[in-house]
Amino acid sequence: MDQASKLRAQVQRSETNNQSSCRTIAVVSGKGGVGKSNITLNLAVSLATNHQKKVLILDLDFGMSNLHLLLGKSPNYSLVDCLQYGISIEKAIMEGLNGLHYMSGGNGLTDIFEFSLDMRKRLIDELENFAYIYDFILLDMGAGATEQTMAFLSTAEELLVITTPEPTAMTDAYSMMKFLHLRYENRPFYLICNRAFSVNEGKEAMDRLVSTVKQFLKKDILPLGIVLESTQLRQAVINQEPVTLKYPKDEITRTFSQLAEKITVRSFENNIERSSTLSFFQKLRKRLLER
Ligand SMILES: Nc1ncnc2c1ncn2[C@@H]1O[C@H](COP(=O)(O)OP(=O)(O)OP(=O)(O)O)[C@@H](O)[C@H]1O
Ligand SMILES: [Mg+2]
């Protein structure tokens, strides 16, 4: 069975099982280069391998979608190809390691709104069809906030903010959270501090951000955890393999598994029901079609 037929079969199975929902989490940062793509990828691997979840990564860094470089595999088609040449979504979804699915935003998409309403509608209809097979869709976003990024970002039910302990990254993370909070007040925000040199350094940075957000934005954010500076992660990037697969016994792999565990548990604490697919696509339709 080829990949496209497998996907179709899974969609049919999910529809008959009435598993009609998944959680959508956008991974964002203020400053660029703080580790969004690596964290998205390794959380996805961990959700899939340690927690048996079906995960789709959508690489929505349209300026320079490059998450596939961390996977060591190149997708044949991207979301831009779907829009531009009418390629079907199932062709653009690449089956990665351990059943992980990946779709690239493609490069050079400067304005999604340049595409006709019909094309955008077809894209959303098709995406919606496929969402039924996933437990999680993780959106790897570009840094900062363009109109296009915001159109996709606004559809995610949950937001995962990445920072490092550096003051510049923290200040930008705060600005991003302020910007997002003013628009999407009620969504849960999670925080990960990446590249800390010690647990203490990471904890202090997170505490500071959590209390600043609480004081000035009156918003509770959930500190998910700390990812330490890791030579294994750097090595894995060079080898184009997710660190969690390359070094399954390393501390960093345990860290990602714990973070993934917190994310799965969080749904119950937060009453995030597995019904958010509907609102994800309702919002996507609104943002991409009603303009
Ligand atoms: N925990 C870590 N330990 C060591 N190096 C890291 C760690 N996290 C990220 N890096 C380094 O930082 C680089 C950038 O990471 P990544 O591409 O994930 O960031 P990004 O936020 O997605 O960047 P962009 O904003 O450009 O999309 C990696 O290639 C890696 O070299
Ligand atoms: Mg990135």
Question: How many distinct domains?
Answer: 1
| Rough outline | globular
Structural class: alpha/beta
For the sheet with most strands, the description reads: 8 strands, mixed
| Second rung of CATH, namely the architecture | 3-Layer(aba) Sandwich
The distinct bound ligands, ions and cofactors come out as: adenosine-5'-triphosphate, magnesium ion
Helix content: 40-55%
Mean pLDDT level:
85
Query: What's the CATH superfamily, by name?
Result: P-loop containing nucleotide triphosphate hydrolases
Tell me the span between the first and last alpha carbons: 41 Å
The helix tally amounts to 13
Order of helices and strands: HEHEHHHEEHEHEHEHEHHHH
Radius of gyration: 18 Å
Instruction: Give the beta-strand count.
Output: 8
SSE arrangement:
Layout (H helix, E strand, L loop, with lengths): L2 H15 L5 E6 L7 H14 L5 E6 L6 H5 L7 H7 L3 H4 L1 E2 L5 E4 L12 H15 L4 E6 L5 H7 L4 E6 L3 H17 L5 E8 L2 H19 L4 E7 L2 H9 L3 H4 L4 H19 L6 H14 L2
Parallel strand pairs: 1-5, 1-6, 2-4, 2-5, 6-7, 7-8
Antiparallel strand pairs: 3-4
Bound molecules: adenosine-5'-triphosphate and magnesium ion.
Tell me what you see in this structure.
By secondary structure, this protein is of the alpha/beta class. The protein has one domain: Rossmann fold (3-Layer(aba) Sandwich). The chain contains 13 helices and eight strands. Strands 3-4-2-5-1-6-7-8 form an eight-stranded mixed beta sheet, with helices on both faces. β3 and β4 form a beta hairpin. The radius of gyration is 18 Å and the shape is globular. It starts with a helix and ends with a helix. About 0% of the residues have low confidence. Magnesium ion binds next to α2.
